[in-house]
Amino acid sequence: MPEPAYRIAGLTKVYGEGRSAVHALRGVDLEIPKGEIVVLLGPSGSGKSTLLNIVGGLDRCSAGTVHFQGQNLTEMTDAQLTRYRRDHIGFVFQFYNLMPSLTAHENVELVTEIAANPMNPDDALAMVGLRERVDHFPAQMSGGEQQRVAIARAVAKQPDVLFCDEPTGALDSTTGRAVLQVLKDVNEKLGATVLIVTHAAAQAAMADRVIHFADGNVRDVVVNRKKMTPEEIEW
Amino acid sequence: MVSPLDHKLLRDLMRMKGQVLAIGMVIAVGVMMLVMMSGLVTSLNETRSTYYDRYRLADIFAPVTRAPERLLPRLAAIDGVGVVEGRVQGSALIDLPGTDLPVQAQAVSLPDLRDPRLNAVYLTDGRMIDSDRSDEILLLQSLARAHDLHPGDRLVATMNGARRTFRIVGLAQSPEFLYTTAPGEMVPDDARYGVIWMSNSALSAAYDMDGAFNEVLLALSRGAKEAAVLAAVDRILGPYGGLGAYPLADQTSNRFITEEIGGLEAAAVGVPPIFLGVAAFLLYIVISRMVQAERTEIGLMKAFGYTNAEVGAHYFKMVLLIAVGGAFVGCLLGIFAGGAMVQLYTAYFKFPFLVFQLEPSSFIIGVLVSVLSASAGGLFVLGQVFALTPSAAMRAPAPPDFSRTGEIGRALNLLLDQPSRMVLRRITRQPGRMAGAVIGIACGMALSVSMLTIYVGFDRTIDLTFDVVDRSDVTVSFTTAVSDKTIYELQRMPGVTLVEPIRIVPTVLRSGRYSYRGAIEGIPKDARLYRAIDSALSTIALQQGGITLSSSLANILHVAPGDILTVEVREGRQPVLNLPVRGVAESLLGSPAYMDMEALNRVLREPGRVSGAYLAIDSGQADAIYRALQDMPTVAGVSLKADARNAFKVLMDTGAGAIRYVMGAVAFVITFGIVYNSARIAHAERARDLASLRVIGFTKGETAFVLLGELAAVTLIALPVGAVLGYYLSFGIAAGFSTDLYQIPAIFDPGSYGFAALVVIGAGLTSGWLVKRDIDRADLVSALKTRE
Ligand SMILES: Nc1ncnc2c1ncn2[C@@H]1O[C@H](COP(=O)(O)OP(=O)(O)O)[C@@H](O)[C@H]1O
Ligand SMILES: [Mg+2]
């Protein structure tokens, strides 16, 4: 097994307190290998997004450790976390989260501007097949197009790790396959570790590794011996 | 390359342009006010001192009964005296064809064959007098203008009892006579008082002053001690009937100008900060809510790895653009408005030229206050958002909890339709935001209320002065204090219904280090035409053996009833008396001091003397009465209350008080800006909700109601709050407008409150209409598609 990108131990997250407390993560122990495509599967509310947000440095945990390149994320200051996200991480959100007042090109630029080793924004948009739409505003694009801009934005900084929370959740399957293809390309061309949260079990077929999540913890981890390309997948 | 954040900035500003403009406008008028007022004050002060310097206005004036010219070198030798000039001056009456009453004037000598060393005149028309020709005079330009007199015209005047005809060869102005009033009157009136300049030889002949003078002008040398010089002058002139030397600060015209500029200065110091404060508060609220609305975007930027400083800088740029933009426009407007106002005031003060100067600190203060308050609003919210993790910031804030509406709510729910319920819930469930909006609009209401009550305060001052304090029709002043038999003479005139004497004695009042050069007015017992009144407007019975001060004078002298005043009489034997303060009277015009007339005459040891009279007359016989008065040799001047009232009104509408109209306009602009902004913010925050309502089938009207109902409710709550704020604010503003010359009371005037409420409601309706247009035009699909 290759050297892990993340080593997660005893990760716990509790929202709220007292009787209304929600235990979103209940002591997760997990290793995520470098350079792999990892798919996180599980029912809604099982804590997948919570895990992604904490590992991606967007949120804080209640207990446990997350090691990335020898550093413990859970002990970092806000400024260090910002640095971590800026230098290493790309995000793709379920609801795209584009800046409404920026064009596709500018939305990508927003990230390349502060990245250490960015791609040309036009190349990133070309990768997702949006070379023609660079000057359009989010309101002028379909959901699939917006999501592809969001992916271009995430990959343009050439991140070490790409976190995608239900990237195809709001898309039809044809558009979804195109999006997954882009994620696969990023993994292959940039060597980025890609973590995809989905509830479409079929998508697990493109992963190197599949983590089944339930009730705030890992149920099992399956290594996928027979990887399929996104085109081959039906859901 | 322009950074994408700058693109975002510009597009956001464009998207919110209505609101940005409204905020910018509020800042602009706040800053404009500051720049205009301080520029005005600086310019007037500079112009005045330049004028004084250029025409060599004296530092000390010393009237004397009759002193020989050989005294001048002795005066010049006083330590600290730079320049000395002796001159002759006296009172005169000018007969103008077509006027009821003779015009009072002061005749002043100009040296033969040379320029005056002090108190030079500025020739506006014609030429200087030829000292060989004793009938040549210069006339004060303002009087000439009022009566359409020109060089070459003839003028008939009575001097020292002799009637003579003069030739006007030129018109002139002088820094000494910027403000001129007839003796015994408070308010200047160009048409009813004048100055005649004549050659020294001619005037000396007219007043039997050959080889002598009856006034000395002195200029101090650098570092001179004024008090010591005054004392030395008094010592030298004492044997010759010196009436007490006084400094420029006590000179009538200068005191008036100082008061007027002081009034502007007080208004400049006191009022613009209130306006700017309101603007700053609004800015704080608006910017904080604008940033609040950007919460998701902030979370997103943070998720990408933008640091707090970078995100902060982005919003700070936005704040800076709006605040600096507004302040910049405000500065330009201020320069423009200040320039226009200075021109008006230059004409009003009769300055022959204008030194226009701006006060640089006002720019800096204006820009700083705007930027700081806007930044504070932005920083406050940014701090809150930064405290959240990016994932929390990106989640839309949890919907406010509308579940706990309570029993009353449930009962109301049965009565209200769905949109009304939405309005009610939003107001009750987001009290913080609603309070911000209410306070904002209340500030606007308060500004309007206080400015409107100030207008009423000015009218009240006029009414009190001319209807309550003084109920006479005509005032007569005598050449000197005469026997009270003259009063019977007046009483016997047909048409005169009531005559009441008055004894006016020029004095200097002192208490510790405070002093006031003015007069004591002796009022007879049971006077009905001219009285001292208390704050409840009832007559004060003047107590024997003491002095009653107007409240403004009590303030100047820092005394209260029971304190002892030193009274230096500047007439007759010039006794120095110690008199206790017996009471304090309400007075809105001037700073009078009252005594019982008999008591006053007793302490002066001049029983039965009167110096003037108040008359009530039958208006049908007015002309006959005026003619009869003119024929009385003891009468020095006659003034009609109607004229005085008019002059006072003009003074208040053109002098320092005139600025209130500019301020009123600014108050309304700010009020509108605030209300409009409140509507805009509410709309921006709810655009998605409103679009959703439309999508599920609500009509445009119902949708607009949800928003406008909220605006209406907030406005209605703001009205009483603003009324209370305005009540307290009006005291501050009234104090700012009050001067030694007149006091403006803060009044509770229901009409003003009603009108201010109408202004706010009007602003609410206009804003509601503007916002409703946008709701109607909203593109439903894009409203729902973006942001999430
Ligand atoms: N901000 C939050 N406050 C309270 N509870 C939350 C919050 N976010 C998530 N949860 C709860 O934590 C659990 C896990 O949520 P999440 O990680 O979003 O699940 P998933 O992504 O697997 O659907 C859920 O029960 C959810 O209700
Ligand atoms: Mg999720």
Please tell me about this protein's structure:
The complex is a heterodimer of chains A (235) and B (788). In chain A, the strands form two sheets. Chain A has a six-stranded mixed beta sheet, sandwiched between helices. A four-stranded antiparallel beta sheet of chain A has the order 2-1-4-5, with helices on one face. The radius of gyration of chain A is 17 Å and the shape is globular. Chain A is of the alpha/beta class. Chain A has helices at residues 48-55, 78-88, 104-112, 121-127, 143-155, 173-190, and strands at residues 4-15, 22-33, 37-41, 63-68, 71-72, 89-92, 161-165, 193-198, 209-214, 217-223. In chain A, α5 runs parallel beside α6. Chain A is 28% helix and 28% strand. Chain B has 23 helices and 20 strands. With 788 residues, chain B is of the alpha+beta class. In chain B, β3 (89-95) and β4 form a beta hairpin.
Describe this protein with a few key phrases.
heterodimer; A: 235 residues; alpha/beta; 6-stranded mixed sheet; 4-stranded antiparallel sheet; 6 helices; B: 788 residues; alpha+beta; 6-stranded mixed barrel; 6-stranded mixed β-barrel; 54% helix; binds adenosine-5'-diphosphate; binds magnesium ion
Question: Topology, pairings included?
Answer:
The complex is a heterodimer of chains A (235) and B (788).
Chain A: E1 4-15, E2 22-33, E3 37-41, H1 48-55, E4 63-68, E5 71-72, H2 78-88, E6 89-92, H3 104-112, H4 121-127, H5 143-155, E7 161-165, H6 173-190, E8 193-198, E9 209-214, E10 217-223
Parallel strand pairs in A: 3-8, 3-9, 6-7, 7-8
Antiparallel strand pairs in A: 1-2, 1-4, 4-5, 9-10
Helix pairs in contact in A: 3-4, 3-5, 4-5, 5-6
Chain B: H1 4-15, H2 17-54, E1 60-68, H3 71-76, E2 81-87, E3 89-95, E4 103-110, E5 122-126, E6 136-140, H4 141-146, E7 154-159, E8 162-173, E9 193-199, H5 200-206, E10 212-220, H6 226-237, E11 246-247, H7 252-293, H8 295-303, H9 308-349, H10 360-387, H11 390-394, H12 406-415, H13 418-429, H14 431-469, E12 474-483, H15 485-492, E13 496-511, E14 514-523, E15 547-550, H16 551-557, E16 564-569, E17 576-585, E18 593-596, H17 597-604, E19 609-617, H18 622-630, E20 635-640, H19 641-654, H20 659-695, H21 700-737, H22 750-777, H23 780-785
Helix pairs in contact in B: 1-9, 2-7, 2-9, 2-10, 2-20, 7-9, 7-10, 7-14, 7-20, 7-21, 9-10, 13-21, 14-20, 14-21, 14-22, 20-21, 20-22, 21-22
